[in-house]
Amino acid sequence: MAARRVSYFFSRSLSLPTSPASLAKKYGLSGKGMQRYTTATVLEEPVITPPVQVNYTKLLINGQFVDSASGRTFPTLDPRTGEVIAHVAEGDAEDVNRAVSAARKAFDEGPWPKMTAYERSRILLRFADLVEKHMQELAQLETWDNGKPYEQALTAELPLFVRLFHYYAGWADKIHGLTVPADGPHHVQVLHEPIGVAGQIIPWNFPLLMYAWKVGPALACGNTIVLKSAEQTPLTALYVSKLFHEAGLPDGVLNVVSGYGPTAGAALASHMDIDKLAFTGSTDTGKVVLELAAKSNLKPVTLELGGKSPFIVCEDADIDRAVEIAHFALFFNQGQCCCAGSRTFVHERIYDEFVEKAKARAAKRTVGDPFKKGIEQGPQIDSDQFEKVLRYIRSGIDGNAKLECGGERVGSKGFFIQPTVFSNVQDNMLIAQEEIFGPVQSILKFKEIDEVIKRANATRYGLAAGVFTKNIDTANTLSRGLRAGTVWVNCYDVFDAAIPFGGYKMSGVGREKGIYSLNNYLQVKAVVSS
Amino acid sequence: MNGNMEKAWMRIPDIKFTKLFINGEFVDAISGKTFENIDPRTEEVIANVSEGDKEDVDLAVKAARQAFDHGPWPRLPGCERRRIMLKFADLIDENVDELAALDTVDAANLYSLGKAMQIHHGAELIRYYAGAADKIHGTTLKMSSELQGYTLVEPIGVVGHIVPWNFPTQMFVMKVGPALAAGCTMVVKPAEQTPLSALYYAHLAKQAGVPDGVINVVTGYGSTAGAAISSHMDIDMVSFTGSTETGHRIMQAAATSNLKAVSLELGGKSPFIVFDDADVDRVAPLALLGCFFNQGQICVAGTRTFVQEGIHDKFVDRLLEEVKRWVVGDPFDPNVNQGPQVDKKQYKKILSYIEHGKREGATLLAGGKPLPGKGYYIEPTIFTDVTDDMTIAKEEIFGPVMSIMKFKTVEEVIKRANGTKYGLAAGIMTNDLNIANTVARSLRAGAIWINCYFAFDNDLPIGGYKMSGFGKDMGIQALHKYLQIKSVATPIFNSPWL
Predict the structure, then answer these.
(1) Is A28 helix (H, G, I), strand (E, B) or coil?
(2) Which stretches make up the Aldehyde dehydrogenase domain (chain B) (predicted)?
(3) What are the tens digits of pLDDT across the range B75-114?
């Protein structure tokens, strides 16, 4: 096995442009004359090649980049073109075994859980500082692998990634158990201990942010980790994990296995030496993960799954603002958000005006090469998702929802889809029931608050909800009545580190972010003495 | 012991900041007055520092008030305050040499210890509170009718910090750190004996990006500047560390002015209890350190050493061996354990307590005299056969004077240890689980150290019972004293649950 030290791989010889604008300029693509999706020619232009090298493509096990045991690799594709960016080592059960045994050793013997919490917090802080220094490269890799707008990755997601690690660094030395009153002459104290080796499976829609949600709390609590990134987006997890080792993380504490769900993912979920599993992805896969945990060693499982989140616009709402936020709630990140506001319920009195404005807004949405300045929407992640979204659009049309705009692919290569708006959507239509995970907005009409609560709750999901109203009673009634893990009132997609996130019903189990996320990674031990 | 006074480490560091720090600028006192800053090693003047008075406090409060009522600091999200505080901590780490030297010439804190640990610990505490800045949680409430209720946890406002001279760095960060994280603005009055590092910290905070007016430092005397803070009508809270006598005055001033919230960390006469089963080789050095560290100038010093009769003589013999190895001298000398007392007043007070001890019939086991020559040096002094009614067993000496008292039973020592107006800290030396648990629960003191002493930690709150004060420093509890709670309730309709 060609095992070398992580630091050996750190070689950077790039001159980076300082902003998306200068990047575009460098490649002769100025922001003016920006093309709309309706003119498909935009994608016939040559794609921008980001000035970043792909240096890390192997598995990261016990502090070293290594080939997979089988020697196999898989291609990670550029969703703008479907072309190969790099071949990445493909981990499967054998590699997971090796990673778990490194993580096990690092937990059972290694320095990490025995370090002072303050030292752990310093390593997290140093890591965040290193990420801050490499934000541009990371944002470029993220966009290249995922297709999200570069400006979004650079100016929103990377800074949030840094804040998340600062946040969790601050928790490391503030994990408090309780001393507890006893009924008799007993002294009772409760110790919060790290749970052990955590297996973490993250999705492709926000590769870095999902990494932060998982890795941050697990490390702050003193655990060790085997992380499986999504096969669509393996690149940034490897890069930042290398930075983590540079920041002083001991070997074996954080292992990254790239690979597929049915092989590497299943091996993690069913592993007998993993103490805790955290998964973010689809509800169908979540069921499999939970089942594997049940059949193996009963490891506790955190699941953050799908959604069909209602976005409720009441008659007293500021319509223009509601239109803009509803648009953002659905189309952000190509509609590939688990909490996307994908059922837009609008009060009948403002329905027509809302639909007109929502349609106009969607028609204005700029679709194109995500490296180009001013682009709001890039391609869907891969051909499977692309085909699936188009099938849902077809089903909407066939089901007699009114197609207000969009509905087609954009261009002839890559996985670009027009921002699509349906009105007159009924609760029983497929597009109102299933998670599309694409740029398809479904607008439904409602009359009464009680009615909309009932209809909004009539789903197997319960991840998030948006409420637009100026009335305090309406806001309170909806906030309490909706069975969802997050309710955003007059806002949407607010993702502070401190705000807990997670689902009701089949949207998942447990909460990520905030103080609540720590519970996932701690054991509770009561010590009672007489 | 004191023969090395002419060595190279007698150096005095460059003193860059000697003026008041108000609204982000170093300024002279309005009166133009200054006071002498004296090196306790030589009794010589090393700097003249601006002497703030009521008018200067007024200006500082005005700046802090403006910064709180209209400035960005309390309105920044916690994550932004955290970022600035992390930068502040990094700057402290970068300036360790100078900061440690200032505390050594000012307070006679050991230079090598300051450089290797204490200043970094200051930075660590700032980082601890930086991490807390975005973790200030209110609660949503379980109401008994159709109401939505919740609490908002808000910064208390303008805080006055009056800090002592024994550990200038620790005291500064201990007060300023949590108040900054909470989103407060503040006026800090360092002790007149040790004004230098506080001014330096204010400068670093500004460099880190703490907005003007958030931290103001008014150097000066307690009876003028300190009194102006505690009686100020526009200060929302005063946090004081110092003597119990001054604590009385501060609370009175708060009561007769605007009823500002008060937090007091005052004196102590902490018991250090050695049970028969203790390991003498481990405990004797700990008892020595627990009493003589920082020249005995530490509020939690273990000054009443209760030793169970079965181990008493063995303990005393071992202690005597230890104290012979305890080196008194220039605190810049890396081999020195104990420097001079902070000033002439303290020095004389301690010597008079030693005379009390002798006169009242305690047996002088070691020390008892000042060192010859310049500087406020006193020998580490140990009395045995001390009884509870002697002055040295009752009053806080704040010097290198240990009083050893013999006891028989657990019940007896609990009673005697609690027989004091103070209740700051206590040490329990035993391997017996039941004794440890019983005594830890029975002692009326704010910090109990079992088989250790001075186990300070960022996360460990410190503060007194009884006349040792109220309100905690360090830990999350300290953050909460700079916060206040607002309850919000509003009717709700048709909630599916209550």
Answers:
(1) coil
(2) 27-488
(3) 999 999 999 999 999 999 999 999 999 999 999 999 999 9
Instruction: Cite the DSSP H helix spans in B160-279.
Output: 168-182, 196-208, 227-230, 244-256
Of the candidates B83, B135, B493, which has its C-beta nearest A498's C-beta? B135
What is the pLDDT confidence band of residue A35, given thresholds at 50, 70 and 90?
A: very low
User: Model ipTM?
Assistant: 0.88
DSSP A402: E
Using an 8 Å CB-CB cutoff, list chain A residues near B133: 170
Residue A19 vs residue B358, higher pLDDT: B358
Tell me whether residues B495 and A121 touch, CB distance under 8 A: no
Over residues A252-292, the pLDDT tens digits come to: 999 999 999 999 999 999 999 999 999 999 999 999 999 99
What is the secondary structure of B227-242 as a DSSP string? HHHHT-TT--EEEEES
The SS3 of residue B226 is helix
Dist. CA A40–CA A413, nearest whole Å: 10
User: Would you say residue B17 has pLDDT above 50?
Assistant: yes
Q: Do B458 and A173 touch (CB under 8 A)?
A: yes
Q: Which of A118, A172, A480 sits opposite B124 (nearest CB)?
A: A118
C-alpha A287/C-alpha B86 separation (Å) is: 42
Residue whose structure tokens are 């398809």:
A440
Q: According to the model, what pLDDT value does residue B10 have?
A: 61
Residue numbers of A between 66 and 125 with CB closer than 8 Å to B: 117-118, 121-122, 125
How high is the pLDDT of residue A10? 29
Q: pLDDT of B354-398, one tens digit each?
A: 999 999 999 999 999 999 999 999 999 999 999 999 999 999 999
- A vs B, Cβ pairs < 8 A, gives 77
Write down the catalytic residue from A137, A151, A231, A304. A304
Task: Note the pTM of the prediction, 2 decimals.
Answer: 0.90
The span from the CA of A326 to the CA of A322, in Å, is 6
- A322: DSSP letter: H
Crossing angle of helices A135-146 and A235-246, in 10° steps, is: 160
Cα–Cα distance between B153 and B486 in angstroms, integer? 6
Give dist(CA B452, CA B300) in Å, integer.
13
Characterize the bridge pairing of strands B425-429 and B34-39. unpaired
Q: Which residues are within 8 A (CB) of A262 and not within 5 positions of it... i.e. 6 or more apart?
A: none
Q: Is A454's Cβ below 8 Å from some Cβ in B?
A: no
Average pLDDT over residues A75-85: 97
Q: Which two tokens stand for residue A242?
A: 């290398």
CB atoms within 10 A of CB A402: 13
Q: Does the pLDDT of residue A206 top 70, yes or no?
A: yes
Q: Say how many C-beta atoms besides its own lie within 10 A of residue B112's C-beta.
A: 17
Q: Is there a contact between A92 and A259 (Cβ–Cβ < 8 Å)?
A: yes
The residues of B annotated with a catalytic role in the active site are 265
CA dihedral (B218, B219, B220, B222) in degrees, to 10, reads: 70
B470 bridge partner residues:
B264
Percent of chain A whose pLDDT exceeds 90: 90
pLDDT at residue A39 greater than cutoff 70: no
pLDDT of residue B7: 56
> Of A31-45, A467-481, B49-63, B171-185, which gets the smallest average pLDDT?
A31-45
What's the CA dihedral at B473, B477, B481, B486 to 10 degrees? 170
Chain A partners within 8 Å of B132 (Cβ) = 170, 174
Chain-chain contact of B134 with A472 (C-beta, under 8 angstroms): no
Burial A485-503 (b: 16+ CB within 10 A, else e): bbbbbeebbebbbbeebbb
Best A120, A122, A125, A515 residue to mutate vs chain B (most B CBs within 10 Å): A125
The answer to whether the CB atoms of A529 and B458 lie below 8 A apart is no
DSSP for residue A337: -
